[in-house]
Here is the input.
Amino acid sequence: MTVAQFIPQTYTETVAQGKVTWESPSNIALVKYWGKKKNQIPENPSISFTLNNCKTITTLTFEKKDDASDFDFEVYLDGEKKDDFKPKIETFFKRVESYVPFLKDYKFVVETQNTFPHSSGIASSASGMSAMALCLMSVEKQLVSEELSEEYFNQKASFLARLGSGSACRSLEGDLIVWGENEVVEGSSDLFGVKYPYAVHENFKEYQDTILLVDKGEKQVSSTVGHNLMFNHPYAQNRFAQAHDNLEKLKPILESGDLDAFISLIESEALTLHAMMMTSMPYFILMKPNTLEIINKIWAFRNETGAHIGFTLDAGANVHVLYPKQESEEILEFIKNELVAYCQNEQYICDQIGFGAKQVQ
Ligand code: DP6
Here is the structure.
């Protein structure tokens, strides 16, 4: 696939107005995307679990307008007008305009809501941008005469989502998605996410992710600033090579269900991501004291009980506690008794591996 394949032929159908709704989940990376080139091309491959409960629901209402000279849209979050979301969507529209050239022909109303609390420190860009991209594809589907295959629809939606936010291209399907060209996964691409095509052991079915909300404040470092820190970073090339290695190591782990090896790999990825931020210029520490308390408690509990509990982190202080469904009773008990006290207002979210976005009729 090349970029050109996502530029549509002329639109043949006339659609005066309409309304489409999609819900799309967040995802949590196991091998992290950190560092990008021009046009949202990742420096290294990443792989993520799609989540199930943390999602964005977006309705796009569109109405044909006479003057096609500029974008025209309004944004609402939970029914309230959100003008501060407009610049982000405007940037997204500019980036995708050549692939969905109907954008200036319509006036859009974007109505969006998240299932997770606002300012929970959980990024809504993956779920939000993927929901938005899917809505645009549903509009495009009405404008072309030929039937779009499900594969093309999903690929192009992932391609568009990536231009909104890199990790968003991994949210459309499930349960494991790979993004970034690599030697391990056949069919992998820098342009869109693909389903992980190899055997996955039963141990990973319904894998649990309990998200501990340690710090619900605004992100200290935006993802754009974060990715830019990898330019001229002294360890960048090693890190990018390591991501390829880790993806290769993950394949037999996913197949055999080796949970100890899985936990070592994901924890090392999480700490490496934070190590990159600590060793860049400027440097950042995005963990909070309670992030470290939680990590130490998880390690102690694992040593004492042998439970298969592990963690991963995004570019923030919150901790994603990952564990197999089979051990969830014991581990959730431990989380409630020992870890929740370190969360802001004792807030946490129980999620698990999911299967991607759905159109809402
Ligand atoms: C640490 O996808 O938010 O979560 O492409 O600039 O929107 P942009 O970045 P974004 O970066 C996510 C980085 C990460 C790791 C990951 O999800 O792979």
User: Anything to note?
Assistant: The pocket of DP6 is lined by residues 29, 32-34, 40, 46, 123, 125, 165-167, 223-224, 227, 273, 314-315 (CB under 6 Å). Residues 95 and 160 are 9 Å apart (CA to CA). The chain has a mean pLDDT of 96. The longest helix spans residues 236-256.
